Amino acid sequence: MNRILKIAALIIGITGAAVLAVILIFPRQAKGPEQVGSLEDVRQYFMQITSDNLPPALSVAVMKDGRLVYSEAFGSADGLAGIEAGTDTLFPWWSVTKLFTAAAVLKLCEQGKIELDSSVGVYLPWFNLTDKNGEPAEATIRQLLEHQSGLKDIIPEGIAWIHPAGAPPVSQTRIVADRLNGDYRRLLFKPGTETKYSNTGYIVLSAVIETVSGISYEDWVMENIIAPLGLNDTVFLRSEAQQLRTASGSMNAAGFFSVMLKIFGPDDFREKYVSGRLDGRIWLKPLYTDYTASTGLSGTAEELAIFGNWLMSGTGPAAVLMPETLIKMRIEPPLQDLPDSSSGDKVFGLGLKVWKHNGMRVYGHSGGGPGYGALLAIIPEQELVIAVNANDTSINRDEIFRVLAAVKW
């Protein structure tokens, strides 16, 4: 199918999926309690939505004042096999991975190997960018982190950039060199003038990390960010034992991502990646994205919460970044300029997104792709960290966050 036909099919597919979503999904998605009187109210809500397969499995963890105060899992990690989720269940985090990539870049800045306001071309002289008129252009490392580079996103075409478990990993520098050509190197706007979310920018950052460190992006992040923080179940490549504890991905057969995968996914997607259908839901075999710097990590909700607590306070098993560096990751625009939810207009610091809730700034990131959804939310004013994992992309992250934030921890 050529590009024009794919775009036309996408428009038709999205319209149809939206109508089906309204008819089939949204009426069944239960709202949480308006007034949260106790943790039991929250638990009843989570049991209700997982019993409705929206999502099939949910794992949540909460840290308050540096302590893990709540961790619980609900529902089915694998509906076909009848496996229940546990607090030790791993889930792919998709775009929450960007926070680890941002931390890695800042660590290399501390080491003097990267300058935030240097052009990408300083590190990747072969990665030639142009403006809309075809004239040479430049974007900085800071602009990549803040989604202000002007680089076109790889989605929706990048949905096909996946591989099954057992396939060899993909070099991030090779992705940049071989796949990010043509339109990917023509900027959509002058860097620094707009904010437009782009997975592409983080893929480019992984090539920068590989260039200045001399090792693979994944190895550098594991050795310098993840291992020092003691996150033993936070991985790019799941071991056999970890795969047995990983939730199977799932999607509503009439949902948005199911339509997107039919249009933009690999031609052999059903054969390689679908393990079966049950009650209108597609269940997936283990898979990985090729572009690890923006979407590649998996882990438990507890370890995601520990990472979030470190982002907020700097405390942990090791001093991975200096306190002043962690503070640089945040921005503090006026509250009235912030969106009311994690899914609203994008406002970013150095990797960290910021929104508002009950008059307070919330920092973090959401993640979502075929089969999975995640959220990390940090309220520094309350020293509260909330981590959410699910095996369905179409979860109501803001409602789940709202009810958890309402508990008197």
Describe the SSE topology.
Layout: H1 3-25, H2 39-51, E1 57-64, E2 67-78, E3 83-84, E4 91-92, H3 97-110, H4 120-123, E5 129-130, E6 136-137, H5 141-145, E7 162-164, H6 172-178, H7 199-213, H8 217-226, H9 240-244, E8 250-252, H10 256-264, H11 269-273, E9 274-278, E10 281-284, E11 287-289, H12 292-295, E12 298-299, H13 301-313, H14 323-328, E13 353-357, E14 360-369, E15 372-379, E16 384-390, H15 397-406
Antiparallel strand pairs: 1-2, 1-16, 2-3, 4-12, 5-6, 7-11, 8-10, 9-10, 13-14, 14-15, 15-16
Helix pairs in contact: 1-10, 3-7, 3-8, 6-7
What does this 3D model show about the protein?
- With 409 residues, the chain is of the alpha+beta class.
- Helix content is 35%, strand content 19%.
- The protein contains 15 helices and 16 strands.
- The strands form 5 sheets. The protein has a 7-stranded antiparallel sheet, sandwiched between helices. Strands 8-10-9 form a 3-stranded antiparallel sheet. Strands 4-12 form a two-stranded antiparallel ribbon.
- A hairpin with a 2-residue loop joins strand 14 and strand 15.
- Helix 1 packs antiparallel against helix 10 and helix 3 runs parallel beside helix 7.
- The longest helix is centred in the first third of the chain and has 23 residues.
- The N and C termini lie far apart (53 Å).
- About 6% of the residues have low confidence.
